[in-house]
Structure formats: structure tokens, C-alpha cells
From TrEMBL:
Pfam families recorded: Rcc01698_C
Species the sequence originates in: Szabonella alba
Domain Rcc01698-like C-terminal: 13-46
Protein name, entry field: Rcc01698-like C-terminal domain-containing protein
């Protein structure tokens, strides 16, 4: 058994080298965008233990190219057996998580009221006794894209609350007429490093 906490992973040792895992939780800590649905047969499972150490990345490194060579510590860095990797830290873990619970209400006159619920990276964000989770950002802000197919027809910036009224006049400019059918939008909370994970949804 790996853990007995509610909602945590349970592991049963079937025989040496083989485990059966149950009660798996997907998308923890803002990782739902990396979920494969479903995971392909034979997908690898990575066990994160004390042997995994974070990279010493500072704020000055965000977006800068890093060149790493990965291999046995007994070999020199230039050994051809080492794997060469180039990447640019994006500070994903410091960006806001994807909003959730998006809702649409059609208002009299053709306006559409959109609302959503923010999430938080902050400590104690999983406290069910709180009326609202801690902000976890310097300031509250959101950006919203309205889509027509794959094309963005309107971007709304500077929202400071998780609501937006898409007026009938705006719809006429973007679509030529009020939107009576499904409406596709992208919603993101904005932090110090820009947009966080995007909620891509049709309402």
C-alpha cells in the first residue's frame, strides 16, 4: 500500500516488479492539461521519490535556453553516450491554474453573461471550510478569447473579476448577429508571468 489518505493511490504488490494501482487522481496541482485521455496501453508510470531533485532555476532563467547533457556521473559531460537536451524554462508551476465551472446565462436583449471559478496555487487552497480559496497571485485578473471556429474574433483583457457580459452589440460585430447557439471561449487567469493554463470550452 502506497498511501491510505482519502483519495490517494493504493498499490497492491502483485508479484516482484508488478503493481496494481487503484484510486488514481488525475490532474492534481494544475496538471490536467497534461492528461492523456485515455492513456495509451503500455504508457510509462514515473514514481517520484526523494531521488528527484528540482533544477536550480531562478527568475532570470525564464525563457532562456538551457543546454543539458544527461548521463552517468562517471562519464565526462562531452561523452557521446550522454543525452543532449535543450529547453527553455517556462515557469509553468508559477502560473495560475486553469479556471473551472464556466457558466453561460442568456440575458434579455441578447446579452450573454459568462462566469467561471478561479483556482489557486496557494497553500491551504484545499481547505473546504473557506468561502473562497486564497488568491495566490499579486492581483486578480483574467483574459478571455471569443472564437469563431479556430479563429479568435475578440480578446478581452483587464478583467478583475471572474465574470464577463458579452453584449448583443459585441456579438453583432464578431458574428454579424446574436449568438443563439453554442459559444466557444478560452478563459485564463493572469498572473505576474502572464496567462496561466487556459480553459478551452464551448457553452
Amino acid at each position: 500500500m502506497l498511501d491510505e489518505k482519502p483519495g490517494s493511490v493504493l498499490g497492491e504488490n502483485q508479484h516482484p516488479g508488478r503493481w496494481r494501482l487503484t484510486r488514481l487522481l488525475r490532474g492534481l496541482l494544475g496538471t490536467e492539461g497534461a492528461i492523456a485521455n485515455p492513456a495509451p496501453a503500455g504508457a510509462r508510470v514515473v514514481v517520484l521519490d526523494g531521488g528527484v531533485k528540482p533544477l536550480p532555476i531562478g527568475s532570470a532563467d525564464y525563457g532562456a535556453a538551457w543546454n543539458w547533457r544527461i548521463g552517468a556521473s562517471s562519464k565526462p559531460a562531452g561523452d557521446p553516450a550522454n543525452l543532449a537536451v535543450t529547453f527553455a524554462p517556462s515557469a509553468r508551476g508559477l502560473r495560475p491554474w486553469r479556471p473551472c465551472h464556466a457558466r453561460r446565462v442568456n440575458l434579455p436583449g441578447g446579452d450573454i453573461a459568462l462566469s467561471w471559478t478561479r483556482r489557486t496555487r496557494a497553500f491551504a487552497g484545499d481547505n473546504w471550510a473557506l468561502t473562497e480559496v486564497p488568491l495566490g497571485e499579486v492581483a486578480e485578473g483574467y483574459e478571455l478569447d471569443v472564437l469563431n471556429g479556430a479563429a479568435i474574433v475578440r480578446t478581452v483583457s483587464g478583467l478583475t473579476t471572474p465574470v464577463f457580459t458579452y453584449t448583443a452589440a459585441m456579438q453583432a460585430v464578431d458574428f454579424g448577429a446574436p449568438v443563439s447557439g453554442p459559444l466557444s471561449v478560452r478563459i485564463a487567469q493572469v498572473g505576474a508571468l502572464g496567462r496561466g493554463a487556459i480553459l478551452d470550452i464551448t457553452l
